[in-house]
What we know:
Largest sheet: 6 strands, antiparallel
Number of helices: 12
Oligomer: single chain
Amino acid sequence: MKVHDRITIPVRWEVGCSAQAETSPAEFVPAQVPGAVQLDFARALHYPDYGSGENFRRFEWMEDRHYLYRAFFPHPGLEPGQRLWFVSKGIDYAFRISLNGRCLYAREGMFAPVEIDLTECLMEENRLEIAISPVPKLHPAPADRSQAAGAVKPPVSYGWDWHPRLIPLGIWDDTVLEVRHAASIRDVHVGYVLSEDLQQAELTLRAQTSAVEGLRYRWTLRDPDGAGVLYREGELEREVEIGAVLESPRLWWTHDHGAPELYESEFVIRSAAGEVLDRAVSHIGFRRIRLVMNEGAWDEPRDFPKGPSVDPIQLELNGRRVFAKGTNWVNPEIFPGTITEKRYDELLDLALEANFNLLRVWGGGIVNKDSFYDLCDRKGLMVWQEFPLACNDYPDDDRYLAVLEREAEAIIRRLRKHPCLAIWCGGNELFNNWSGMTRQSWALRLLDALCYRHDRHTPFLPTSPIYGMGHGNYVFKWEGREVLETMLESRNTAYTEFGMPGISPRSVLERALPAEELFPPREHSSWQSHHAYHAWDALPDTWLCMGLLEEYFGAADTLDQLIERSQTLQCVGYKTIYEEARRQKPYCSMALNWCFNDVWPVAANNSLIAYPAEPKPAFRAVAASCRPVCTSARFRKFVWTAGEMFEAELWVLNDRFAEAPGLKVKVWLETPAESTFLLEWNSPQLKPNANVAGPTVRFALSEDAPPRFVLRLEAEHFPEYDSEYLFLARPKETESPRTAVMNV
């Protein structure tokens, strides 16, 4: 809901800090709102860029301080019938709000909005204060993500394998002083239920207002072209409920299956003379989203007595079973207060370019600002929204659950209007030995109940993964087996996390690492602090994977050579997983990589987009693998031996819901020296939303095969369906690719 025709009063904020709550700050510095207290003090103290080298460690002392925002403003000179409100969309995390020394509000939680009528407490000169408590910690040590288990605060900032320990505090979303009429709109929600044939929508508008006798309301619904299709008027009350029926609504689709049609709802309060006193505008996308059982899933388990089958994870949009191609989204800045609509827009346009239709908003990060969801609505991107729980055992105690309930209810009520919202999820990786939660955990039972109460038509999952889904691989080779091999043997209803590490572009490295540390990479340097080494205890050289790179390519002579090799493996790995997941349709219904974007300059990571918004080569590779229709090849390994018989199965992958003629596919083997024609395949007609399997191409590699060769699939008359695949070759007499594949 966006409210119009209100007056905002600008104020200048400043912030101070102290070691104790009862001690007033000795000095104050200018504060940027929205922002973070850490950034305000970093500017005042002239700290260098926290994204460079070890500079982020300068912020450690700020975790345990108490902060006080304050702003001074004169009486706004309200006219008769006007009220002054303090309005904030987000304050992080535990805080107390006072006006002229009088405490008006205190709360824990960063996602529920705050609205306070200040009118009765105003003086000629006013002092507004917001006291912020230190970073919440379940226990003082160890200083890891488990400290976040007692708070409804994103645990990622407590330290992760791609995020430094930097824990924001402060005013992180829009916060203003606002002049309203005494008769104002508190909340408006338009819900609807579509008929089974999707040809009729039963709408219910519910509005909460500060009603004044003698006023009226007017509700207008406009279609995507701006033409009015519904009108209702009546006398204003504190609670307004209006029912209506819309025939033949234009449906909201993801960008790859249709148009994301949006209707506009306008609810207006008018005076007896017709003057507009308050106005709320929102958008409605008529769609039906369900999670249904994957094809073949009811056959599992096969033994009796029957236990639960795999959980449904097949997305059905407007009756159409769509394959969800997408990614895991993380907040694009360490400090959420600095995220702008422009930044969201830039990254979401890249998601469209990647041919994605679903973003999993991962539970370790924030619930995004309103502009993120508005943009997803307009661009036709579905959102899987997780609550801010991840990789922890969240307690069954009343204090935590009370905060969780208030925060979760606010999140649901804010987001439920968005047609992009496809799935609610309790959080990330909660059903495992390091988290220790189950379906009986009170936090998850509470979240399920709240979603049912406030948004029952949107599916709910307790966590990801659950039975049937897969998380991983995260590296190209694990326990001696390449991802190409493990994917051929995998059978999951959905791949909701998988990753391939790649070094960031040189421009990012030059910002993140001191010049003297750039090459060669070393442990216990800024390479490690920026997650190239010891990101995982199980794999000390993660995410750089230097040992693996040298196994395939030998020792790199330059930084640029190392970057190219790392990014090559990332491309090959990601193409393998996305295309194999699509081949496993219809039992498999989803492929979401880990992850889309970075929050700061990372030396090496699984992301497709380096910070702040620079695509890696793997981004282009994934975009090609996620085209609605594309030729594809299935093969069992990346490195082949000279003289060996090369084999690859041919496929056409099709996610379009329309019949199409078959393709004439020509297959070529290309080396730097020559291009060799292998075969021509005339595929059968493409049926709606169905793949086509073709022949197996075989080719004996020559005894002097070059170190690299490419398999190219060429669709005659349809170059947009072409694909190509890179392979390495090694001499027959060599036993290890470490020495066989020379520096290329």
